[in-house]
Specification:
The chain is an alpha/beta fold. Helices cover 56% and strands 12% of the residues. The chain has 6 helices and 5 strands. Strands 3-2-1-4-5 form a 5-stranded parallel beta sheet, with helices on both faces. The longest helix has 17 residues, at 82-98. The mean pLDDT is 95.
Amino acid sequence: MSITHRSVIDTFAWVEYLTGSEAGAKAKERIESPGVMTPSIALTELTKWFLREVEAGRRSESEMQEQLSFVGTSSEVVPLDEGLARRAGEVDFLMKKRIRGWPIADSIIYATARHRSAEVVTGDPHFKGLDGVFFLGPD
């Protein structure tokens, strides 16, 4: 049975999926369904993660290129345009009042999901308990 949710996949979920972890297995059905989106900021964070992995000798440069290409072809990469940037600024202003250590990247991801009427798929603890989040971690 396939999921009909529109899903915004954050960096945490992509890393878990690509490494084949237990949390990645929970994300798999969402990632492999129609309506999947990846905010461009998550692609930035994934690139940084992969470069650390390559530098540490845990991944190869070719694996990095292949996996980043996969993310781009298996999901719609949503660019940060002017309207989304403004929405993310509003989200950031409000979330920093509520959640300690809330990063701007999470604001962009959350604003993308809200703007696209989608859920965020993540295991990032900053998102735990927020509306419109499919949380991969323990409850």
